[in-house]
Amino acid sequence: YERHGGPSLAAIAAELNSHAVDRAHELRRLVRQVTYTTVIGNGDWHGKNISLLHDLDGHIRLAPVYDTVPTRLFPTLMSPGATSVAGEFNLDHIPIERIVSEAQSWGLSRRDAEAAAADTAEAAEAAAGSVEHDQLSALVIERSERLLTSR
């Protein structure tokens, strides 16, 4: 967890900026992961759940998202996130502007950050209708809409 010495998003982005072949592509992928985590209410997205894949040439890329849990559906689990977004740990207080601000601090353009976040929230909202778990579907739709209307 970031609060306990785990990596921040800025630290992960710095590694991508230094060692990715296509840094902008990888940073957009990180924005998508941040947005997805926010939309599903995954407060357990921490440094051990954000991995970098290394190739033989010393380049890295962001691993696909894994170990995702909508912790907001479990009242006994913590509500603040394990990783902050532009200084905010509470997933309920992360508008799209905060995600964009975080991404801009990594060197990603506002346009690219906004597009990646909005595309991800829209895709999650569209997919939520086919989720068979009613509470999860409602959670994702509500959080996606909140994120998108905060633009």
Describe the protein's architecture and organization.
Helix content is 49%, strand content 10%. The protein has helices at residues 9-19, 23-40, 96-105, 110-128, 134-149; strands at 52-54, 60-62, 80-85, 88-90. The two termini are 28 Å apart. The mean pLDDT is 94.
Q: Low-confidence parts, pLDDT < 50 over ≥5 residues?
A: none
The chain-level structural class is mainly alpha
- Beta content comes to 5-15%
Strand order of the largest sheet: 1-2
**For the report, how would you describe the main beta sheet?**
2 strands, antiparallel
Shape: globular
Helix tally equals 5
Q: Report the mean per-residue pLDDT as an integer.
A: 94
Q: Whole-number radius of gyration?
A: 15 Å
Distance between the termini: 28 Å
Count of strand segments: 4
The share of residues in helices is 40-55%
The succession of helices and strands, N to C, reads HHEEEEHHH
In short:
The chain has 151 residues and is mainly alpha-helical.
What are the SSEs and their pairings?
Layout: H1 9-19, H2 23-40, E1 52-54, E2 60-62, E3 80-85, E4 88-90, H3 96-105, H4 110-128, H5 134-149
Antiparallel strand pairs: 1-2, 3-4
Helix pairs in contact: 1-2, 2-3, 2-4, 3-4, 4-5
